[in-house]
Each structure stands twice: as C-alpha cells, then as structure tokens.
C-alpha cells in the first residue's frame, strides 16, 4: 500500500458516519412524546409486563365480595332476586361488621316480585286477595326501609343518552381548585335506581369503567362528570361511607385532578380523576358466596373492618374484561382492586418527568452508541446497543418494583435500535465502500507495478538481448578495433546498434534510434535491426540496395507509425573504404590521429519509414590509418546538464580531442559515456545512450 | 501581419502541446509552442492532427509556424511525420515555416527538411501555399 492509499483509508475511518447518526439522534429524542400517541399499545404492553412480573402483593383484604354465584342462584332462584333477598344480604353483611356495603347492581325498575306487581301480573285473583296483596308494602320500599340505617352505597351508571338526566341531588364531591371537569370521564345523564332505594341509600357511586383500545381495563375512574357536576365512583363513595364522612374534597390544579380528601385520608389521583391500578391476581380470599351469607355460614366478625361489595357473577350476568394480569377478570373484582389501590400506600405513578427521563436516557445511550460504536464491527455495535438497552429495561423494572414508577423503555430501545441499525447499515456500506476503494487501489497498483516492471523488463530484455557482443564480432579482423555501448534510460527508449561481417572483408555497422519508448519501440527496434541484417546479408548490390530493401520492409511492418533514424555503414576492412548512409541521424564524427574531429556530412535522407521509397544516397569516404570513427545517438547530444544545457556535438568533439592518441575503441566508448553521465549528474536519463567507435588500420 | 502567433513575449514559454490557429485566406496557420517531448507530445498530437482533416486538394493548405517551438524530440517529429502522411494521403499541401535555430538544426539532422517544404517565415509560406486564381 502506498502512502496516498494509506491516507485515504485513514481519513475514511475518520469519516465513519457519526455526524449523520448524531443528526438522526436529534429527532429520535422526540420519541417519548410521539411514540405513546402513535403507538399507544406499546407502552401499555410494557406496563402490563411490569405488572405481570411484579403484581401487587395481596397483604390485606380490605374488601369482601359477596358473590351472587351459580350456587346462590340455584338455591334462591333465578335473577333478579326479590329485593327482600338483597335486603337480607345487606343486613347480614352489616351484621358481620362491614364498614360499608356497595351494590354493584343497578335497580332501575320496580321489583316484579312486589305484591302490587303480582296483582297486575295475575288478573285472575279474587278481590279480597287483590286488596290484601295491594295493601302489603312493596319489595322496593321494604328494601329501602331495611337498608335505611345501614351503610349502603348503591350503583349508578353514566349514560350519554339524550333521554337520561343528571342526578338531581347534590354530589358528595366538593371541588377545591380550578374546575377539573374537562379532564374527566364525562356523561350527559345517568341511569338511577328506583327512587325509594336511591333515597334510602347513604351513598351513590358510578359503576362506569373505560376500557383501553384493546378492551383491557388499566385505569378506573374515581370521579366522573355527569352534566355539570362531578360525582364519585362506587369505590370512592364506599370509602366515604365507610369512613363516616358526609362529603369529600377533590383537589385540583391547572392540569386537572390532584387527589381526593376523605376525612383525614388523602387519596392521590391522576389528572383525569382516575387511578391506574396495580393489579394483584384474582384471589379467592376476596370472595364469599351470597348463599353462605344468607345461610348464616359466616360469623359476626367475619367482615369486621372490611367493606363489602355485592355483585352477581352467575349465569353470565356480568362483564369480565381483560386486565394487565389476566385475560378476564370480573368487573366487581376490578372494583375491589380499585378500593385496595385507593387504600394502599403505593400507587402506580407515571411521573411528570417520565418523558424527560426517557429522552435523557435515549440521548445518553444514543451518544454512547455513536461514540463508542465508532469503527465497531456490527456485532460489537449490537452488543453496545443490547447491553445498555438491557440495563435500561432492568433499571425501569427495578424502579417499578421499588417505587411503582412507570417509566417506558420503548422510546429508548426503539430509538437506539434505529440508531444501531443506521450505524450498522451505514457502517457496512461505508466499510464496503472503503474496502472496494482499497481493493481497486491495490489492484491498480499491482497492475501498474506488474505492467511497469514487466514491460520495462521486457523492453530492456528485448533491447539488450538482441545487441551483439561488441568484443565478439564473428570474423572481425584484428586491424579493426570495434566497440559499442548502450545504456538504456530508466524508461527504455529505442536505441540500437549492430555490427557484423557481411563477408570476409566487409563490416556492416548500424546505429539507430526508434522514435518512441516502451515495448512497442523495443519491438520495432528489434524488427528494424533484424530486417536490416537480413537485407545486408542478402544484398550484393552494395549499401544502397541494402538500405532501400530494409527501408521498404521496415515500413511495411510499421502499424504504430514509428520511424527509425539510423546511420548505416559498410567498411572494407582491407582497404579502409567506407560507404555510409544517414537516415535522419546525427552525423558520425571522424578524426585522424593528428586531426580534429569532423562530421561526416552527407545529403542523407529522412528517418526510415518517414517517406516511402525514398532513394537514400550513399556517401563514400576513405579512412586513413588510425582514423577513429565515432557514431552516437541523440541520447548523447541531448543529454541534459543540471541547468538544462544540452551536451551537444561540441562537447563530443572536445572529448574526442582530449583522448590519448590511439586510444582503444572501448576506452573511447566508455569514456564518452562517463562524460555524459558526469554531465547529467543525478538527473535521470531521459533517453537511451548509444555510442559506437571504430578505429581502422591497414592490415599488416 | 504579426510575426508569430504567440508573440515574442511568449515565445519562450515552457509548456508544450498547445496549438494556436489562424486562417489567412485558404491557408490555415497552426502554431505549436514550447518544448515538444514525451511529456507534451500527446497534447500536441491531439491538437494538431484533427485540424488537418480538411487539408485537401480543394480544401485548406496548412502552414506549421514553428517559431514558438523551442525543442522537439523524436516523438514530436513522429507527429510531424503523421501530419505529413495524413496531408499527403488527402492530397493536401503542408509546409513548415519560421524555424528557430534549434528547430533548424533538428530539421537538418533528421532530414525533415526533406519531408516538408521549409519557408523562412510564415509570410513566405502563406504566399507559396495560397492558391493561384
């Protein structure tokens, strides 16, 4: 991995999406306010779970339910009973010490077992019988008279029926504070009992309950609004009567109801005048069969310090709504639990700060998630979510068990769950993006390295591999001192040289430069060299024909439209007669033992392949003994010094002038190469450098 | 007529590859500039060759004003070769003009003065290439 890639990966980590997650956290903080409205069942489900985990322990039994059950109906007769039976039940309950007796029964119509009702029902009775019966008191009045002195509270039902009227008697509830009416469960009218019974009763309580959307009872009203007045529910009214109070005082503030004062007792209530019940499971200890009471199977003190609720559960006479702790609970037991809750020390509390606490915890854990989850793997992120989430749930359950606090973990769990999902998904995509970028970068680097290394090596191998060993030119006579060097540039160019004996006298030599770099130039150079050699070895018409043939053949094999500058020569090693041809190349230099260097000027022609069928002219020269012929490519003349100055032909001449007389061809070549390298210094060579030197002497 | 497309002050610019264009009658004068070597040759080729497409017998003639070219390596010469081949293939006419000292030497050594007609200055080139009515 190179430095830029490493930087990219590192900066990528730094950019792990934290700001987007924090931005997401902000609206999530509203969840404690939004969620209960959008999805009321969720919080209820969780609070129900609390209650199932920790139901209210039933330590005392302040309420007894006298149950008109199947056994009672079987023994006494079908419902409704004559009200005289109810009178007996009420009397026996009072005799057993009940502080108050609440009737979870509505008696809106006259008792049909009353004697007068019987007269109407049986028109065949004789006159005496009719008058005797008519003179008897009716059952409702008898019930009213018998209950008159007893602490009996009768039920009422709130109705939203246009025909129903509010009660005409004043309420036992007095308001202390701003009117809380609008916060309460409200009705326009009510269903009352038979008037005599209503008058005789010491208390009147409403029996209405309001189930939740799922039909379950979680709260029970302590007060309801009927018309313009506020009235107590049966449970509260029973307590008032039990405590011997004439009235109750309902405290309220701007937010609604605060609580109820009954004598010395204060019962805190929710703002809507209700109590969120902490349920205990249904318990048989609360229940007594009406039949047992009527048959005096209870003793005098059995109901001492208890309140009694009388209701009917037999024969499907009653409602059994679900509650947090059970799928069905008798309505009268819910009333009993209401009274137990009112009298209990602990109350389920949804404190006003609950939502702020939930939002705060959401912020705390969300922030922790975002910060601690930085660079985390999905599993670790999930752990960072799950562990605090479990702790939150545990804390909230503990607070419920200890203080009956209702704190809703769902905004915290859901909000941070969303956040975790967001972090995991963006983390995944981010990591994937990074990984893909990294993979691409690595692949590119590998490819580049392979390409460069492979190509450069291939080009270099082609170039150097095909050059002849200058010290081992087959058949080269001793009177010719020949040498050549080629130094490839870092990016290989296309210089070439060649030398071979075409027969036992003539040496063919060639120095050239392909326009271009890389494998293509190297291949073209190899091709050119091979074609030249082939043309030289085939030809017998001299250099002119060799060049003409080679040029044509090279041009035909030139799809990349490259060209080759070259100087080719044919030296008769016996006579020193030199033929040469220049195709767009630097002119060779010739210097005698005691003469300055001079260019071997020629008309020449453009580089091979530039102009097709160009008739390259051949020049001739006669070498004298000890003459030195030096050929070179533009890698020498155009080598750049530190200040961009070119080495130039003049420096070559100067170098050659400074040579020892009769210096060997190898010394000439390597010395000139050193001079060039010294001139360029540390700067990398842009182009190949090729140098060839021949010193001829006549054969001895 | 101005002596050069790039003006004297910019003649020594180091960049290479850009090619200015100027039309004089049916002669199109193209002016490359700077050093044309392996770093700038691709831009030079891409700038030059598309402008030769209408260099035809009945189209425009091309004058390459090389006065602003400081140096040209063999890869640059290769592009000139491509230009010459293209124009020749289209039966168009192309010439070079106003070689500086260095370019003159390069043309002499490489014998590219045998590939292109070379004129002393652009006026001479334009005059020579303007079609006689």
Notable traits:
heterodimer; A: 700 residues; alpha/beta; Phosphatase 2c, domain 1; 21 helices; 19% strand; rod-shaped; B: 133 residues; Transcription Regulator spoIIAA; 7 strands; globular
Distance between the termini of chain A: 65 Å
The major β-sheet of chain B equals: 5 strands, mixed
**Got a strand count of chain A?**
26
| Percentage of β-strand residues of chain A | 15-25%
Largest interface: which pair? A-B, 26 and 17 residues
How much of the residues of chain B is beta strand, in percent?
A: 15-25%
Q: Give helix % range of chain B.
A: 25-40%
Written overview of the protein:
The complex is a heterodimer of chains A (700) and B (133). With 700 residues, chain A is of the alpha/beta class. Chain A folds into 3 domains: 3-38 and 350-437, no CATH class; 64-343, no CATH class; 466-696, Phosphatase 2c, domain 1, CATH 3.60.40. In chain A, 41% of the residues lie in helices and 19% in strands. Chain A contains 21 helices and 26 strands. Chain A starts with a helix and ends with a strand. Residues 1-15 of chain A have low confidence and may be disordered. By secondary structure, chain B is of the alpha/beta class. Chain B has one domain (19-122): STAS domain (Transcription Regulator spoIIAA, 2-Layer Sandwich), CATH 3.30.750. Helix content of chain B is 32%, strand content 23%. In chain B, strand 1 and strand 2 form a beta hairpin. Chain B is globular, with a radius of gyration of 13 Å. The two termini of chain B are 22 Å apart. The model of chain B is unreliable at 8-14 (pLDDT under 50). The chains are: A alpha/beta (700), B alpha/beta (133). The interface between A and B is medium-sized, with 26 and 17 residues.
């Amino acid at each position: 991995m190179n430095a830029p890639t490493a930087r990219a990966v590192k900066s990528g980590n730094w950019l792990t999406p934290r700001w987007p997650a924090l931005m997401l956290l902000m609206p999530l903080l509203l969840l404690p306010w939004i969620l209960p409205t959008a999805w009321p069942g969720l919080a209820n489900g969780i609070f129900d779970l609390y209650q199932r985990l920790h139901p209210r322990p039933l330590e005392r039994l302040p309420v007894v339910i006298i149950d008109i059950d199947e056994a009672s109906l079987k023994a006494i007769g079908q419902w409704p009973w004559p009200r005289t039976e109810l009178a007996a039940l009420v009397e026996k309950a009072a005799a057993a010490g009940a502080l108050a007796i609440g009737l979870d029964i509505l008696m809106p119509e006259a008792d049909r077992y009353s004697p007068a009702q019987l007269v109407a029902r049986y028109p065949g009775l004789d006159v005496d019988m009719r008058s005797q019966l008519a003179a008897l008191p009716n059952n409702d009045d008898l019930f009213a008279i018998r209950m008159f002195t007893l602490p009996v509270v009768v039920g009422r039902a709130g109705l939203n029926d246009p025909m129903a009227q509010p009660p005409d008697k004043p309420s036992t509830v007095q308001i202390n504070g701003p009117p809380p009416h609008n916060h309460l469960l409200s009705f326009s009218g009510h269903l009352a009992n038979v008037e005599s019974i209503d008058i005789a009763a010491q208390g009147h309580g409403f029996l209405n309950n309001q189930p939740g959307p799922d039909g379950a009872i979680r709260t029970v009203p302590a007060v309801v609004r009927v018309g313009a007045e506020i009235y107590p529910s049966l449970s509260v009214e029973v307590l008032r009567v039990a405590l011997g109070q004439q009235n109750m005082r309902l405290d309220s503030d701007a937010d609604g109801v605060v609580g109820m004062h009954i004598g010395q007792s204060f019962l805190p209530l929710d703002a809507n005048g209700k109590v969120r019940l902490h349920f205990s499971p249904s318990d048989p200890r609360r229940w007594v069969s009406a039949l047992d009471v009527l048959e005096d199977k209870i003793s005098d003190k059995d109901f001492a310090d208890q309140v009694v609720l009388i209701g009917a559960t037999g024969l499907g006479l009653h409602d059994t709504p679900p509650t947090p702790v059970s799928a069905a609970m008798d309505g009268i037991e819910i009333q009993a639990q209401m009274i137990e809750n009112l009298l209990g020390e602990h109350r389920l509390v949804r404190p006003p700060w609950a939502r702020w606490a939930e939002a705060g915890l959401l912020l705390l854990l969300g922030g922790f998630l975002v910060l601690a989850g930085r660079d985390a793997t999905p599993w670790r992120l999930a752990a960072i979510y799950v562990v605090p989430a479990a702790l939150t749930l545990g804390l909230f359950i503990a607070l419920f068990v200890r203080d009956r606090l209702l704190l809703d973990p769902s905004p915290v769990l859901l909000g941070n769950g969303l956040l975790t999902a967001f972090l995991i998904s963006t983390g995944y995509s981010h990591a994937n993006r990074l990984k893909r970028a990294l993979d691409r970068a690595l692949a590119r680097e590998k490819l580049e390295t392979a390409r460069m290394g492979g190509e450069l090596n291939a080009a270099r191998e082609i170039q150097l591999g095909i050059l002849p060993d200058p010290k081992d030119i087959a058949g080269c006579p001793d009177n010719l001192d020949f040498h050549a060097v080629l130094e490839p540039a870092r990016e290989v160019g296309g210089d070439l040289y060649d030398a071979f004996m075409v027969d036992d006298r003539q040496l063919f030599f060639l120095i050239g430069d392909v326009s271009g770099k890389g494998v293509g130039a190297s291949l073209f150079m190899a091709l050119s060299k091979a074609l030249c050699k082939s043309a030289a070895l085939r030809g017998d018409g001299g250099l002119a024909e060799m060049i003409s043939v080679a040029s044509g053949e090279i041009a035909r094999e030139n799809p990349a439209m490259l060209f080759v500058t070259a100087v080719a020569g044919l030296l008769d090693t016996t006579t020193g007669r030199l033929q040469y041809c220049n195709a767009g190349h630097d002119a060779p230099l010739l210097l005698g033992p005691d003469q300055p260097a001079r260019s071997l000027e020629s008309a020449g022609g453009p580089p091979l392949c530039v102009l097709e069928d160009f008739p390259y002219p051949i020049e001739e020269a006669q070498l004298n003994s000890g003459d030195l012929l030096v050929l070179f490519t533009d890698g020498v003349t155009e080598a750049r010094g530190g200040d961009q100055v070119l080495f130039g032909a003049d420096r070559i001449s100067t170098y050659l002038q400074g040579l020892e007389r009769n210096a060997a061809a190898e010394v000439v070549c390597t010395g000139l190469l050193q001079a060039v390298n010294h001139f360029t210094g540390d700067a990398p060579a842009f182009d190949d450098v090729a140098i060839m030197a021949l010193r001829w002497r006549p054969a001895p | 007529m101005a002596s050069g497309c790039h003006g004297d002050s910019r003649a020594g610019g180091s960049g290479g590859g850009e090619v200015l264009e100027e039309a004089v009658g049916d002669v199109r004068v193209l002016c490359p500039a700077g050093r044309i070597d392996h770093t700038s040759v691709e831009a030079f080729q891409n700038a030059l060759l598309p402008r030769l497409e209408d260099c035809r017998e009945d189209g425009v003639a091309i004058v390459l004003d090389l006065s602003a070219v400081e140096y040209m390596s063999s890869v640059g010469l290769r592009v000139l070769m491509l230009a010459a081949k293209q124009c020749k293939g289209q039966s168009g006419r192309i010439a070079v003009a106003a070689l500086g000292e260095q370019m003159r030497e390069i043309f002499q050594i490489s014998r590219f003065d045998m590939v292109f007609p070379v004129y002393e200055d652009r006026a001479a080139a334009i005059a020579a290439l303007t079609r006689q009515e």
